[in-house]
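Hi, here's the filled form for the chain we discussed.

Project: internal
Contact: R.S.
Residues: 675
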Amino acid sequence: MACQQSRYHSFSSASRLQPRPSGVTIDESFLTEDKSTQNRKLLQKRRTLTGQFSMGGHLSPWPTYTSGQTILQNRKPCSDDYRKRVGSCQQHPFRTAKPQYLEELENYLRKELLLLDLGTDSTQELRLQPYREIFEFFIEDFKTYKPLLSSIKNAYEGMLAHQREKIRALEPLKAKLVTVNEDCNERILAMRAEEKYEISLLKKEKMNLLKLIDKKNEEKISLQSEVTKLRKNLAEEYLHYLSERDACKILIADLNELRYQREDMSLAQSPGIWGEDPVKLTLALKMTRQDLTRTQMELNNMKANFGDVVPRRDFEMQEKTNKDLQEQEIQRTSTPRPDWTKCKDVVAGGPERWQMLAEGKNSDQLVDVLLEEIGSGLLREKDFFPGLGYGEAIPAFLRFDGLVENKKPSKKDVVNLLKDAWKERLAEEQKETFPDFFFNFLEHRFGPSDAMAWAYTIFENIKIFHSNEVMSQFYAVLMGKRSENVYVTQKETVAQLLKEMTNADSQNEGLLTMEQFNTVLKSTFPLKTEEQIQELMEAGGWHPSSSNADLLNYRSLFMEDEEGQSEPFVQKLWEQYMDEKDEYLQQLKQELGIELHEEVTLPKLRGGLMTIDPSLDKQTVNTYMSQAFQLPESEMPEEGDEKEEAVVEILQTALERLQVIDIRRVGPREPEPAS
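And the returned structure, exactly as it came back:
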């Protein structure tokens, strides 16, 4: 019986792995019926099938040793008797026969599966139905294993129901996925069509621009030839007018001579003229006129050369008195001029480095250089910095108690670190203050443990090196002495100037003529005077003896050395910017007509700005006013409001605040009306 049940179980398990049918023809109402109705139908069918298949309602034993031998009860599969029976079965294979009940069940299953395959819409659920019925027969016939087989069946049925629910839940997602896929495909096709259209437009625009460039080049060549022709015509006209001028002078001289001769003849023909010879009188008159002309010229030369001349005796006396007074003043107020050559043996690097540092610098600048050298030496000797505490006057990035390590970086390392900080600051909009950004940058670069040490180290370095552009500008912004917009605007100005020079370099050779260089400077800085343009050209390498046709390597004007020092041309731009700002604020002070310690109202300061710079727009004026009076722009009273008169500030304080920001002239000042 154990062998039989094991074979039945194997049969039922294998039956569940049948392939999915291609179609069904049976009624699908079985899937929607309740459990009791299904059990009742299965019980009725099992009774019918049992009466037909089981040979009198009993299971037939199979396999057996003989066709009529019954299966022994209570035999263990591993006992000796069981092994003997198995051996007997193997020795007599041809005497065993499959039970009729098993054959009928197999025929029933085959028939049901064939019926299912006849349809075209059979599902896996319907294909499992015959296996369910046969498994129910096994459960009912094998009473001993009925609980176990029922639990197995229920477990599989539960899992099938769970999977069916999951499939039903995923059906809307599948439809939605198909819809989204179609939508995405349509959008992709639309984007591709749009890109294709844009590409075609860009190609057309490119061709139009190329045609325009060719046309401009042709116009340029035509204009150059026309300019050459005009210059030639101008030279010819100049020679013509020069000849005409000389001819006119000769003609005038001849006319004067004829007039003089006519006067002489008329005088000679007049009666009562002393009875002298007319020819002699004419010759004497001519000689007298020549003497008069020569004497007049000598007199004019004497007046021009010696009109302001004093007697030599008086001059020598005044010169001696002046010299004595100067010597007394020098002895009283002056000190001996320092001998800067003494520093060459003290500065690190010897005479060669000192000569390089002192080249082109005055005494005040040499003092700064010497202080930087002394300060850098002291910094290298320090291993730690004392913390400044947590006072309100201490910058936030320096608030610390205790000793802080000196990282001792080189000057080049500090400059590179500051450049990286500027790059990160300008890369994206920063809402935090510049000191907070600086400390966060150090934390991100070196970690929270070393951020304070690097903050003190960099602060002490940039506080000493005033001659270094990168360090001095960073120090001014960090300490609030200058707005960071000043640095940003200056960099943008330099970049715009380089762009204009690159555009003027049509051959892209990195070279410009001095005439082109002058034109670019005037177009980029229309408010600069001729003297300022001349200073920039000289800083760029132009000399008065140079020709306008000389070529200039303009890209070299914007280069920097390893310590961040720019070329004299960029330095001159910065110097002119600072001078223009000072001159602008000085004009504002003169326009207001009050002393520095006096108060100025908001409308009066606004009126002064609009007077010296009429091209200022309202937004820029409000920005200047907000900085001068330390008021948010949203709280600024409108022009003509009564509250304007209540907003006052000391003029010196307002001008110092304006000195911090990027303030410059927007347009030319209107000329004063002629008296």
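Let me know if anything looks off before we file it.
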